[in-house]
Amino acid sequence: VSPPDFNLNFSTRSSKRGGGTAFISSSILSAKPVLFDHFTTFEYTAAVFSSPQILCVTVYRPPKQSAIFIQEFSEFLSILHNCFERIILASDFNLLIDNPSDPFSREFLNILSYMDFSQHVMQPTHNRGHTLGLVITYGLSTGVSSVVDLAISDDFCVFFGITSIIQQETSVRTVMKRHLTPEVAAGFMEVCRKIPPNNLSASCDFIVDDFNSGLKAALDLLSPFKIQKLQSKLTTPWRNENLKQLKRNCR
After folding, report:
1. What SS3 state is found at 181?
2. At what angle do helices 204-222 and 182-193 cross, to 10 degrees?
3. Contact, 13 vs 19, CB < 8 A?
4. What is the per-residue pLDDT for 218?
């Protein structure tokens, strides 16, 4: 089915004849198929490319409206967002994205915006003048170069390119740690026994400071501080405690 030196990734419809989703990639690129949850309102095919790691997904949503599509697609994006830093969704959603007054399309775009996904197609992709074919990315700087009617379908072909990888900002903090083991504790007690007694004629503050200095010197000798940099993970604000509890209840 695929041309020479290309690989075909596809998913068939299990309950119906025909249809399904697929994409073709160069055999030079290492692509590993991945499967997430099953969804009833749309179909998808997904694979992970390496060096750098990019998740590529093709999505098809049938024209018939479904009340739970937004809910299912939100869950799908949440799964992708938690697992991958760079994502491409090339899709036919059969949504009137070009109609700003369409409430279904507005809710769809709001979900993309809330989860930091970007939709790049702004021109018609269908022979009736609507924008149905979408290119959605996360963590990638992407530009649509052209939309061409190849006269083989009522949908047009969307050409786009990835210009750069967006580095997601994460906070880094530095911590200092001592590794305290039973051996360190035993050595510390031995050092403490060898600390000479203080001159009781000295002031109380001097005695306390001198004693603390001796303890710190013993710790620094037996278990010196080690500096470690910790990188905070990117947060997913929609995964609040209420949602986590609901998922636990489902399990």
Report:
1. coil
2. 140
3. yes
4. 85
Residue 95 CB burial class (10 angstroms; 0-12, 13-18, ≥19) = buried
CA separation for the pair 14, 37 (Å, rounded)? 14
CB 113 within 8 A of CB 97: no
Hey, what domains does the chain have and what are their CATH numbers?
A: 6-165 (3.60.10.10), 172-230 (no CATH)
User: What is the number of alpha carbons within 13 Å of residue 12 lying toward its C-beta?
Assistant: 5
Instruction: Output the pLDDT for position 232.
Output: 64
Measure the CA–CA gap between 133 and 42, rounded to whole angstroms: 14
Is residue 73 within 8 Å of residue 94, measured between CB atoms? no
Q: Which parts of the chain sit beneath pLDDT 50? A: none
CA distance 147 to 115: 26
| Nearest Cα residue to 191 out of 172, 212, 217 | 217
Q: Token pair of 129, please?
A: 């003048």
pLDDT in tens, 79-129: 898 889 899 999 888 888 888 888 889 999 999 998 889 999 999 999 888
